[in-house]
Amino acid sequence: MKSKLILSAMVAGALLLNSCSKGVTEETKTAMATFEAAWAEAGTMANNWGADLATQYSKTKEHVDHQTAMMTESMPKMKDETMKSKLMELDNNDKANLTALETMKNDWTKFQTDWEKNTADYTAWKEKVEKGEVNNTEATAALTEWNTKLDNAKNTLNTWNTAYATTKAKSEADMAACDAAMSTPASTTPPAKTTKK
Fold first, then answer.
1. Which of these, 166, 54, 45, 65, lies nearest to 105 by C-alpha position?
2. Rounded to 5, what percent of the chain is helix, strand, coil?
3. Whole-angstrom Cα distance, residue 142 to residue 103?
4. Is residue 46 within 8 Å of residue 116, measured between CB atoms?
5. Per-residue pLDDT reduced to its tens digit, 163-197
6. CA distance 40 to 63
7. What's the whole-model pTM score?
8. In this structure, which of 6, 66, 138, 159 has its CB flanked by the most CB atoms within 10 Å?
9. Distance between CA atoms of 6 and 76, rounded to whole angstroms?
10. Residue 64 near residue 101 (C-beta atoms within 8 A)
């Protein structure tokens, strides 16, 4: 009886070893394909977001640089103190928007670097799976970790997208307000005096 139990255990062990050596199941392969599609979709979303951010940053920086040059020239000639205060406020708003966009741009650069590294790491891991060097249990555990990384990345992008949409809208509004104020002819003309009767 004891020898039969030992033999059964050996057979079970052999079957398990054989199963592991064959690599992953079709279910795991399907899960990998699903992950890869979701990862690619998130990557596209991230790249589109980064491109839009870069465009908005360049536009805002160009506006701030141009505005600074104009204000340097016009402020000393400006007699209307109310207008001067308004322009300074708008200028500060523009610069604050640029700083916020720059922070996002720096965060995006780090995110992109990490994303590219993770993509390369996954590709290398997948090659091992395809060669049968990773058993199904290991692959399933690893895939859970990869999906967690994907979820974290998507959450980060969604948070950034919300913040960026607000900053972009504010930047556009502030730039338009500043352009309108700077184009006002009265900005360099002293306010009219009130005639006493």
1. 54
2. 90, 0, 10
3. 33
4. no
5. 999 999 999 999 998 888 877 654 444 444 445 44
6. 35
7. 0.76
8. 138
9. 97
10. no
Residue 2: what residue type? K
Residue in 53, 154, 143 with CA at minimum distance from that of residue 107: 53
Give burial (CB, 10 Å; 0-12/13-18/19+) of 37.
Answer: exposed
Distance between CA atoms of residues 55 and 47, nearest Å: 12
Query: Which residue ranges make up each domain of the chain?
Result: 25-179
Whole-number Å distance between alpha carbons of 74 and 106: 33
Residue type, 105: K
Could you give phi then psi for residue 135, rounded to 5 degrees? -80, 170
Distance between CA 49 and CA 104 in Å, rounded?
11
DSSP character at residue 189: S
